[in-house]
Amino acid sequence: MQTPTDEKAVFVRSAFFGNLNEGQAPGHFVLQNNKMLRVQLNGEVLARQGSMVAFQGNMDFNYEGSGGVGKFLKKMMTGEGAPLMRVRGQGLLFLADKAQDVHLFYLENEALTVNGRNLLAFDPQLTWDIQRVQGAGIAAGGLFNTTLTGTGWVAVTAHGAPVLLDASQAPTFADGQSAVCWSAGLHVGVNHTFKAGAMIGRGSGEAMQLAFRGQGFVLVQASEGPIVPQSTG
């Protein structure tokens, strides 16, 4: 989908694009199978707390703080941002989350926005921050997401086989809880559907979707996540 035009070009490698061949990216993030990530650790990696299912070698696991006061306040206000642990050592580390499918992206001077609940692991040299979708208030829920920037691996999870949508081909919309990750360069807003009795997106129980415009992709999972009971009050 994206083709670098010069040595400063931004680029994303993934099996979705057919450009993640052996030798094109460091091999320390590998799919053990479609539901488990194997990390050849020789240093550090950041991973979702509780995602370690096994390891071989010598490793140390520590809670990863929010990365500064600003990020801490964002996490407290939004509930966004995966609870992270920093793993240090050498050996093989196996990660998984609720037997969901695992997908890999290798960023080359690129940025990727990930729904916090879908973030499994990433290289520690990537910088990350919590950002709000413009036009969505805190009450909207699920519209604060984590953006990772730089060069390195990102592993995400998806419930069921996802679909990759090219936002440059047509106006693109997704339920806020179904969107797994997307190109950080996309313009993202909120689309409201004002129709009596409309139920679009069971995750939020509201007729509201994320709207994507520009050059880039959106990965959408086959689930809106847990159904939120409607208030009877």
From TrEMBL:
- State the source organism's domain of life: Bacteria
Q: Which Gene3D superfamilies match?
A: Mitochondrial biogenesis AIM24
The record's annotation in InterPro entries points to: AIM24, AIM24_sf, Trp_RNA-bd_attenuator-like_dom
- The name under which this protein is listed is AIM24 family protein
Question: What organism does this protein naturally occur in?
Answer: Planobispora rosea
